[in-house]
Amino acid sequence: xxxxxxxxxxxxxxxxxxxxxxxxxxxxxxxxxxxxxxxxxxxxxxxxxxxxxxxxxxxxxxxxxxxxxxxxxxxxxxxxxxxxxxxxxxxxxxxxxxxxxxxxxxxxxxxxxxxxxxxxxxxxxxxxxxxxxxxxxxxxxxxxxxxxxxxxxxxxxxxxxxxxxxxxxxxxxxxxxxxxxxxxxxxxxxxxxxxxxxxxxxxxxxxxxxxxxxxxxxxxxxxxxxxxxxxxxxxxxxxxxxxxxxxxxxxxxxxxxxxxxxxxxxxxxxxxxxxxxxxxxxxxxxxxxxxxxxxxxxxxxxxxxxxxxxxxxxxxxxxxxxxxxxxxxxxxxxxxxxxxxxxxxxxxxxxxxxxxxxxxxxxxxxxxxxxxxxxxxxxxxxxxxxxxxxxxxxxxxxxxxxxxxxxxxxxxxxxxxxxxxxxxxxxxxxxxxxxxxxxxxxxxxxxxxxxxxxxxxxxxxxxxxxxxxxxxxxxxxxxxxxxxxxxxxxxxxxxxxxxxxxxxxxxxxxxxxxxxxxxxxxxxxxxxxxxxxxxxxxxxxxxxxxxxxxxxxxxxxxxxxxxxxxxxxxxxxxxxxxxxxxxxxxxxxxxxxxxxxxxxxxxxxxxxxxxxxxxxxxxxxxxxxxxxxxx
Length: 631
What we know:
Blueprint: E1 40-44, E2 47-50, H1 51-67, H2 77-80, H3 83-103, H4 110-119, E3 124-125, E4 128-129, H5 131-140, H6 145-166, H7 174-185, E5 187-195, H8 208-218, E6 227-236, H9 237-241, H10 248-257, E7 263-264, E8 267-276, H11 283-302, H12 306-313, E9 324-328, H13 335-341, E10 353-355, E11 358-368, E12 371-372, H14 375-409, H15 412-418, E13 425-426, E14 430-431, H16 443-449, E15 461-463, E16 466-476, H17 487-515, H18 520-527, E17 532-533, E18 537-538, H19 554-559, E19 571-573, E20 576-586, H20 597-621, E21 625-627
Antiparallel strand pairs: 1-2, 1-21, 3-4, 5-17, 5-18, 5-20, 6-13, 6-14, 6-16, 7-12, 8-9, 8-11, 10-11, 15-16, 19-20
Helix pairs in contact: 1-3, 3-6, 10-14, 14-15
């Protein structure tokens, strides 16, 4: 179906100026109750939305949300996020938009629908609309042409309505555009203090009585984890595979048929000098970089120190390392670069090579020939591969036979004694999260094992790696230790908690003192705290001049003003508290050479979105909406 709201571009407008309101109208399968249903799920003025249409919309919303969690939605999440309420709201807004379109005299003709259907590539063969394909695809999705075209009409009507409303916000003033440009490109610098628990660790005095009281409150945090002692049969593919004999003929055949698997391709070691220019740059810049690259290529051809030239001229990230790219295969580089390098000889300097990244001058340092493992070197790997492949079909048969044998023998131990060729493995006590190295069960099998009761035999456990049968020999229930048993760890945690409290109190005291009209410098000096500087910050830069200043505080820094230059409250990042003071604000001037078009389009989109939102809100205010209590 048609996408109603298209906004693929990253908005450059800060939240203080532009609020992009995402209105998601779900029209597919939604409309007047024309399908003969006796009762509607939602009524918007005189328009009815059926239970079937509501369920379809809800299922799609639920599926979209589940996709964000790998296909399985955690229990209760849909309810906690109000998915049902959101779907109801979206359906109501969709109906209101259609009704508003009718009031404005906006219609979608049958001819428009026909042309749209015919233009859809999924209904075409060899570029032409095919009626049989159209009907069969709809039928496969449980739709009739009448229902599909009715749904399509709603989508097209919504899109046309949005387009018409947007025409009322078709202009932005040059002043607005320039103001947005200045706002987006201004920079600020702040002085700040960083108060951390580490600064107070030495000040914490451990009082035995206080420590004991604290431990009594948190002692459950020190409870041991449940531990188990197991006996088990491991029928994992790797374990079963060890018992499978692979003859030499099969090894040799596998080697011959998969020789590429044992071949390391030729690699080459090169340096390069890069002058950056990409597809978004203008032709003038490309010509300038190309000519400059030719001049550098001449210097490189006559120089004995290519690395120094790279450090001097390269604009790529490898420049400071003398342009060194290390060893790489041809496929690891873009085709133009790879083809050039693999046509060179060691010591040779290339002419200028153009790629999507810009203009390169390359020097080949060394060639590392392709290497193919011998059959003897590859043999262990091949044997393991073939063993694992056969084990996947044998493991279940062995595990199932053993399980039936255990049931028949009466116990896992009795079965093991009667079948000495099968190894019964035993463990000492261990926690599920810390199995010892000699326990070969994987995480899935361990999770099942730790659900057993003492003396209980598991069923046949299937995992991604094979099968297992587990007997719970013994269980140690979690225990809460005494303070003496965990004194060192408890004392360390006690000190850390108290130090964190002291850091928080110091940060709060700092802001209180600022509020009493003392200067930032005076408070910092009084409290013996060093003042740091952020350097100039940009609103959306991935990297700032001062990498020690937390990126998460950048937006808070931009909120500071001359009237309110200090942080109202300490900002907690990790375990550290930050308090800021506005140091400098730089706002760029508009010279006329800037590209203001992205800012103009962002403002226009914002105005259109705000107008559409106001239109919907106005319709909703006067609407009569009823929602069936059964949904």
